[in-house]
Structure formats: structure tokens, C-alpha cells
Design a protein that fits this description.
Radius of gyration: 17 Å
Number of helices: 4
Order of helices and strands: HEEHHEH
CATH superfamily of the largest domain: K homology (KH) domain
Largest sheet: 3 strands, mixed
CATH architecture of the largest domain: 2-Layer Sandwich
Helix content: 40-55%
Number of domains: 2
Strand content: 15-25%
Strand order of the largest sheet: 1-2-3
CATH class of the largest domain: Alpha Beta
């Protein structure tokens, strides 16, 4: 049974989401990478604030795995930069775990099925199940 998030967790989720997005956008600008957009869609912090799951949406999707791999390799540097930005707000920055948020791709597949004429909701077996993470 999942417990409800506390108001403190919700506040930390929001602050982490904003700060991680700012750091990632700054890194993209600094590296002069064009045609890349990374959005932080969700952040979930554990009750003891030791770890955070960060869900990312990367566009264009064809190069998403390369950028995601680089991000996972540099997560310790990102955590250090995050701790420098948030040193007056949090005593300890949680460990960061990154995940790809594929909800937009899932929605696109549903819309594509609807446009092709066959209703995927009538025959659910034709639609690929969404992977839980």
C-alpha cells in the first residue's frame, strides 16, 4: 500500500524539479547543443529524503538513449552542483536516480491507433501495455 506524500515531500519534489531543470538547461546551453530539449516531468522523493526518482522527457526521441546515458554517468556531478545551489534549503541532497518518462510516447501511440480507425479501447490486446517503473 502506497503512503501519501507529505507536504514536505511535495515541496521538496517541486524545488528539486525546478533546480534540476535549470541545471540541465544551463548545461545544454553551455555545451552549445542544438535541437535538444530535456524536461523534468516528475520528481519523487522518498519519505526519509535519501533518494529521489527523477523522470525526464527527452526530445528528439531518436537520440534520447545517448543523452540519457551521459546524464546517468554524470549524475554525481549534477548532485554536487545541486547541493551547491540548495545548500541553504536542504541539509543533504538526495541520491538521484533518472528514468525516461515515456507517457508522451504512450499517448501518441493511442492517438495513432484512434486515427487509423480501429479503437484500441475495444480491443486492448492490440495496444502495448505501458511499462511501470
Amino acid at each position: 500500500m502506497d503512503k501519501q506524500e507529505t507536504s514536505r515531500q511535495k515541496k521538496i519534489n517541486k524545488v528539486l524539479q525546478e533546480e534540476v531543470a535549470t541545471l540541465l538547461q544551463g548545461a545544454i546551453r553551455q555545451q552549445s547543443v542544438s535541437n535538444l530539449m530535456i524536461s523534468v516531468t516528475k520528481v519523487h522523493v522518498t519519505a526519509d529524503l535519501t533518494s529521489a526518482k527523477i523522470y525526464l522527457s527527452i526530445f528528439p526521441a531518436k537520440n534520447a538513449e545517448i543523452y540519457f546515458k551521459n546524464l546517468k554517468e554524470n549524475r554525481f556531478q549534477l548532485r554536487h552542483d545541486l547541493s551547491q545551489r540548495m545548500k541553504n534549503q536542504l541539509r543533504r541532497v538526495p541520491d538521484l536516480s533518472f528514468f525516461i518518462d515515456d507517457s508522451l510516447d504512450y499517448i501518441d501511440r493511442i492517438e495513432k491507433e484512434l486515427k487509423e480507425g480501429e479503437n484500441p479501447l475495444k480491443n486492448i490486446t492490440t495496444l502495448e501495455p505501458r511499462q511501470k517503473k
